[in-house]
Amino acid sequence: MALEKNVKADLVKQFGKDVKDTGSVQVQVAILTKRIQALTAHLKANDKDHVARRSLLILVGQRKSLLSYLERNNRDAYIKLIQELGLRK
């Protein structure tokens, strides 16, 4: 499930340094979080969709590794990001 262009652009604008900053860790985590939320809603309606469940687990793993990288390298940005996204430690 891909995100719409305008949703992705809003996330880049909110979490990136500028509108073309799609590669920073904060933007990547925000995009992954949005995709995880969409897949979670999909799985609540379609509980037997095992391909989507596997995709969800892959996305959660990617987000976890990016968050651990951010925590190691920039603790203040990590704390700010998890508060803005409403993630728990």
Annotation, overall tally of beta strands = 0
Strand content: under 5%
Shape: globular
Structural class: mainly alpha
Mean pLDDT: 95
Low-pLDDT windows of residues: none
Over the alpha carbons, how many angstroms does the gyration radius reach?
14 Å
* Helical content class: over 70%
Order of helices and strands: HHHH
Question: Helix segment count?
Answer: 4
The rounded distance between the terminal residues' Cα atoms is 26 Å
Largest sheet: none
Please write out the topology.
Layout: H1 5-15, H2 25-45, H3 50-73, H4 75-85
Helix pairs in contact: 1-2, 2-3, 3-4
Description:
This protein has 89 residues and is mostly helical. Helix content is 75%, strand content 0%. The chain has helices spanning 5-15, 25-45, 50-73, 75-85.
Short description:
The protein has 89 residues and is mainly alpha-helical. It is built from 4 helices and no strands.
Provide keyphrases for this structure.
89 residues, 4 helices, mainly alpha
